[in-house]
């Protein structure tokens, strides 16, 4: 094995020096040795390196055979990893293989445009993304805990309880004015240890579950399956793949596929970050020129090639990398002149985001045979975050609380992950009252104040509701996505601290049958952006728990502006009978037409992910 590795590495050095033939000689000696010792992972590496060298010699067809063999090995190795976290991290390490494969196919497409290489490249792109999510969604429907040893399930419950107790202790410690960095670090260390143990026990449950063993690996959809099962005549799928040397975009309709070559990932990342900063930075909120400049630079790259195909169709967008952070609704097509330039995409298009097209296929499978909930709406809003809140018995700080609110009219629905001093969001109550008035009393439930608690959010009763609406603070953790979450009441009626953090680990354990979950809070669409998996955060947690679609935000949203948007969104759904995707678009258009709210900062943060029908 050591000899094979050394030969492979010498081949790599020659390849870097530009001596491709010499590189191939060494790599070709490495390959049979790796096969002889059964080093499957090393065999995949050698084949990838051989394909790379052959591509550089313009031997594209042989390079294709080698990379396809390499990817077969990777797919096989991937399925042998039981832990979804480890499977995801393994898959992230081999994304360059898929990028190389896609690029090779698209180079072949240039020379033989009628041979279907661009279809193969699109299908490779689909195979390279959100695979762990597909497997999790399939697992969600299978009740994998049935038939598992009771002691394993008891250990899982015990670790959940320990995590809850630690969270409560953490809140108490961080609320003390004299707490030290050392105490904070120790609590964080304990939390990481418990999370690791919790993931380990879940892996053991999977590996010993008869139901899990019986599951077949879900296969990503092919082009024709996507065209038949996902798209209709009025919908176009835009799928992006960002690469080191070149990036690609495929536009797929019910009857066609068109592919476009885009600049390398680094160039797209720079312009995308500039656009996001222009939309979200308060300094630019009232400087439309700054947004327009950033928009033109980005849309020239990622929308201009496909502009002529869009018409007024619904856009299903599968982003990649930095594109997962983008408010596509606020982007305009470049090129048309006019006093105000082009309108944002939302004016002519309904926009839906997907981690992959195949995700929607498996979501539809999951809820096709599910019993529909009987009640319409559950709202959790305006939780109590502080012992100084006026709603606490014997609190003498009502005036202080009101002073804080009046001094912060532009409060955002977000706080840093370790900050437990959260401001009350007064507009969440107004939002809840307007929304609940649209639904008959016998078909809704409102949990406000202390009732907007973690206990309410994790109650089995939520499975009776079609729409579940959270209006509160949100927090995204890009290092440990399982620590992302939304904030419920942190104190009880007497001001005693509670664990009010509803984290991703809790959300995975919910049992919902919701048509729609709305996270009317900050950064709820963010998390950890993992290569090959996309955004790992709250959206996938709620989809796993049983939500058909989720509305989430891409940045720290304004409290009052969000309240206005949500009121309009629910009017569209509950009074005008619009689908959630159409209702969100109508609400965003309404904001766009009002001077006070027309900046995309106020209306473009919220996106719909999942089912559009």
Describe this structure in words.
The protein has 613 residues and is α/β, with parallel strands linked by helices. A hairpin with a 5-residue loop joins strand 1 and strand 2. Helices cover 49% and strands 13% of the residues. The strands form four sheets. Strands 7-6-8-12-15-16 form a six-stranded mixed β-sheet, with helices on both faces. Strands 3-2-1-4-5 form a five-stranded mixed β-sheet, with helices on one face. Strands 9-10-11 form a three-stranded antiparallel β-sheet. The protein has 24 helices and 16 strands. Mean pLDDT is 88; it is low at 396-411 and 415-420. The protein is globular. It has helices at 2-16, 20-36, 40-56, 60-79, 84-93, 95-111, 117-127, 131-140, 150-175, 181-208, 210-214, 223-229, 265-280, 288-302, 307-310, 357-368, 398-407, 426-436, 454-457, 504-507, 538-545, 559-574, 580-592, 600-603, and strands at residues 235-241, 247-252, 257-262, 314-318, 351-353, 375-381, 444-448, 465-471, 474-475, 485-487, 501-503, 516-520, 527-530, 534-537, 549-553, 606-610.
List keywords for this structure.
six-stranded mixed sheet, globular, 613 residues, five-stranded mixed sheet, 13% strand, 24 helices, alpha/beta
Short description:
With 613 residues, the chain is an alpha/beta fold. Helix content is 49%, strand content 13%.
Which SSEs are present, and which pair or pack?
Layout: H1 2-16, H2 20-36, H3 40-56, H4 60-79, H5 84-93, H6 95-111, H7 117-127, H8 131-140, H9 150-175, H10 181-208, H11 210-214, H12 223-229, E1 235-241, E2 247-252, E3 257-262, H13 265-280, H14 288-302, H15 307-310, E4 314-318, E5 351-353, H16 357-368, E6 375-381, H17 398-407, H18 426-436, E7 444-448, H19 454-457, E8 465-471, E9 474-475, E10 485-487, E11 501-503, H20 504-507, E12 516-520, E13 527-530, E14 534-537, H21 538-545, E15 549-553, H22 559-574, H23 580-592, H24 600-603, E16 606-610
Parallel strand pairs: 1-4, 4-5, 6-7, 6-8, 8-12, 12-15
Antiparallel strand pairs: 1-2, 2-3, 9-10, 10-11, 13-14, 15-16
Helix pairs in contact: 1-2, 1-3, 2-3, 3-4, 4-6, 6-7, 8-16, 8-21, 9-10, 13-14, 18-22, 22-23
């Amino acid at each position: 094995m050591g000899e094979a590795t050394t030969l492979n590495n010498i081949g790599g050095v020659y390849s870097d020096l530009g001596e491709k033939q010499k590189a191939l000689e060494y790599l070709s000696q490495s390959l049979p040795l790796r096969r002889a010792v059964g080093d499957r992972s090393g065999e995949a590496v050698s084949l990838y390196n051989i394909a790379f060298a052959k591509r550089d010699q313009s031997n594209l067809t042989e390079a294709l055979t080698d990379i396809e063999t390499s990817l077969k090995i990777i797919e096989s190795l991937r399925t042998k990893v039981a832990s979804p976290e480890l499977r995801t991290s393994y898959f992230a390490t081999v994304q360059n293989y898929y990028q190389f494969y896609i690029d090779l196919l698209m180079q072949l497409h240039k020379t033989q445009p009628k041979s279907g290489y661009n279809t193969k490249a699109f299908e490779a792109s689909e195979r390279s993304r959100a695979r762990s999510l597909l497997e999790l969604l399939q697992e969600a429907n299978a009740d994998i805990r049935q038939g598992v040893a009771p002691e394993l399930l008891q250990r899982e419950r015990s670790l959940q309880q320990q995590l809850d107790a630690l969270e409560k202790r953490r809140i108490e410690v961080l609320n003390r004015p004299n707490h030290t960095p050392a105490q904070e670090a120790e609590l964080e260390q304990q939390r990481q240890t418990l999370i690791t143990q919790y993931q380990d026990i879940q892996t053991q449950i999977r590996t010993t579950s008869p139901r899990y063993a019986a599951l077949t690996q879900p296969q990503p959809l092919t082009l024709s399956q996507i065209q038949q099962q996902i798209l209709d005549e009025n919908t176009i799928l835009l799928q992006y793949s960002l690469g080191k040397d070149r990036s690609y975009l495929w536009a797929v309709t019910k009857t066609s596929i068109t592919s476009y070559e885009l600049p390398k990932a680094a160039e797209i990342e720079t312009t995308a970050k500039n656009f996001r900063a222009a939309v979200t930075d308060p300094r630019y909120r009232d400087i439309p020129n700054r947004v327009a400049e950033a928009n033109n630079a980005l849309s020239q790259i990622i929308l201009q090639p496909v502009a002529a195909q869009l018409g007024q169709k619904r856009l299903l967008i599968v982003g990649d990398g930095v594109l997962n952070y983008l408010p596509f609704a606020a982007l305009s097509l470049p090129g048309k002149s006019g006093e105000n330039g082009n309108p944002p995409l939302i004016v002519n298009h309904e926009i839906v985001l997907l981690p992959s097209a195949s995700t929607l296929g498996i979501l539809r499978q999951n809820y096709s045979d599910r019993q529909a909930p009987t009640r319409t709406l559950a709202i959790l809003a305006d939780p109590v975050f502080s012992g100084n809140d006026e709603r606490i018995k014997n609190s003498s700080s009502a005036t202080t609380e009101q002073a804080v609110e009046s001094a912060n009219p532009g409060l955002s629905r977000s706080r840093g992950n370790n900050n437990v001093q959260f401001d009350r969001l007064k507009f969440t109550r107004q939002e809840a009252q307007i929304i609940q008035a649209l639904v008959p009393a016998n078909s809704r439930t409102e949990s406000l104040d202390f009732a907007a608690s973690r206990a309410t959010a994790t109650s089995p009763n939520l499975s009776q509701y079609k729409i579940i609406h959270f209006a509160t603070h949100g927090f995204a953790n890009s290092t440990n996505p399982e620590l992302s979450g939304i904030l419920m009441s942190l104190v009880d009626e007497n001001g005693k601290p509670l664990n009010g953090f509803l984290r991703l680990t809790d959300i995975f354990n919910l049992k919902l049958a919701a048509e729609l979950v709305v996270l009317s809070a900050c950064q709820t669409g963010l998390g950890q952006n993992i290569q090959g998996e996309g955004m790992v955060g709250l959206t996938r947690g709620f989809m796993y728990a049983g939500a058909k679609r989720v509305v989430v935000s891409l940045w720290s949203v304004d409290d009052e502006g969000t309240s206005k948007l949500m009121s309009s969104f629910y009017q569209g759904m509950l009074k005008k009978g619009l689908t959630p995707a159409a209702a969100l678009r109508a609400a965003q258009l309404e904001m766009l037409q009002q001077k006070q709210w027309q900046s995309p900062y106020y209306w473009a943060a919220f996106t719909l992910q999942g089912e559009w029908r």
